[in-house]
Amino acid sequence: MAQHWSMRNLPEMDEEQFRLWQALLEERTGMALAPERKTFLETSLAMRMRELGLERYDVYYEQLVNRPAADTIMEWSILVDRLTVQETSFFRHRGSYDLVEKYVRDRFTSARPPQNFNVWSVGCSSGEEPYSLAMLLTGLFEELKVKPYWGITATDISLPVLAKARRGVYGARKVELVEPALRERWFTKISDREYEISAELKGRICFARVNVLELHKVPFQDVDLIYCQNMLIYFRRWRKREIVTRLADRLAPGGLMVLGLGEVVDWQHPNMDKVRFDNSLAYMRRMH
Ligand SMILES: C[S@@+](CC[C@H](N)C(=O)[O-])C[C@H]1O[C@@H](n2cnc3c(N)ncnc32)[C@H](O)[C@@H]1O
What we know:
By secondary structure, this protein is α/β, with parallel strands linked by helices. 43% of the residues lie in helices and 18% in strands. It binds S-adenosylmethionine.
């Protein structure tokens, strides 16, 4: 297939190639790329190809398809990183955190409070979401005077964002939006422009690479809280429902799954009830 570098200094992608890339991306990452995003795909691929010293989309495509899966994990991770928006922030959606707070209070003041509390942040990006959950939970457990054995597993498909999350260093503009009491307790200013998350919070979180299309490979079970927001937006409706069902199957009885507002419609599960709480979308697993 002939390819020409255009005025924009990008090789042009013909329709057949676009269809091949769309299919490959959807098969490997679940991401459904609309036709109007062809230029975006061309730009993102071309940037990566330049770094790799490649000039043709089909050569890059062949490399991704023909190499053994284990050899392309890193490359896929970088590519997905370029094709998705990793935008996130601390306490991004207040309504969802309010719901988590209520849920934790209810469970830990019930007649049989749990001994363990396992949290899973799915599509955690650079870590702001799991760190926010860790700040919230630490404060709540102290206030309620309970000491469960607890931790957060935070997963994402992208290795670059996971590296950033583990480092736990954030720009001042982001951190300055965090409530002052939390900021003072959990962040240390390391330069004029950066803050670092405390070691105590880092110690509560285990970051790992998980592609949500491969949930069958993940050993998590009996999770008390699954928090999954702004990740399902990349997927087709049927796939969103499938992923949410797989996540729900990992919840412990009484466990809560918090999604982003409007992120699934018409989803049902025989063991899950929709939770009524303002400004949130969540489902709870029945006890029996
Ligand atoms: C916009 S961020 C959301 C971050 C955070 N949950 C929030 O709400 O602020 C979406 C994340 O989903 C991740 N993602 C995209 N496709 C994925 C997949 N197939 N498996 C796991 N993570 C994926 C991206 O790498 C990105 O970090």
